[in-house]
Specification:
CBS-domain; two-stranded antiparallel sheet; elongated; alpha+beta; 7 helices
Length: 157
């Protein structure tokens, strides 16, 4: 399974912000749409990712507020990314190793989408459920073996 398969199921909605936007605005957008990340775009190119992790670190440093920070001041400006052709089996260990919950999907310099660890886990579970269903159907439809005929029947035939 490829990353493009996840994007196809997930749909094409991209949530973005600008590096000079206030962090408070970005947090409001994340809360409004119940999302854990925003792709940070500047001049049509991805320049970073803002996730709830960066927001929480900022809130902890500022005594419970986001303060007057901009997105640029707290974003991850070197997010790990993948391509639509990347195999899911390659993405999973990377996300686990780097503790990455959100990964931009890039086709050259074009942002195609963002996949989450949830999206990856759901795709794996869905694939396993499908495989289990197919195996159970195969086992249920297993052709019965013919029972050996008695010697007297074989001689008459």
């Amino acid at each position: 399974m490829k990353v493009s398969d996840i994007l196809r199921v997930k749909g094409g909605t991209l949530y973005t912000t600008f590096p000079d936007a206030s962090l408070a605005e970005a947090v409001e957008t994340m809360a409004q749409f119940d999302i854990g990340s925003l792709a940070v775009m500047e001049h049509g190119e991805l320049v970073g990712m803002l996730t709830f992790r960066e927001v929480l670190h900022t809130v902890a440093r500022n005594g419970g507020t986001v303060g007057s920070n901009t997105v640029r001041s707290v974003m991850d400006d070197h997010p790990m990314s993948c391509t639509p052709e990347t195999e899911l089996d390659a993405v999973r260990p990377l996300m686990l190793e780097k503790h990455t919950r959100y990964m931009p999907v890039m086709d050259s310099k074009m942002l195609m989408g963002v996949i989450s660890f949830y999206d990856v886990a759901k795709a794996v579970v869905d694939a396993q459920n499908f495989e289990n269903k197919m195996l159970k159907a195969y086992i249920r439809d297993w052709p019965e073996e013919e029972e050996p005929r008695a010697e007297s029947e074989q001689k008459q035939a």
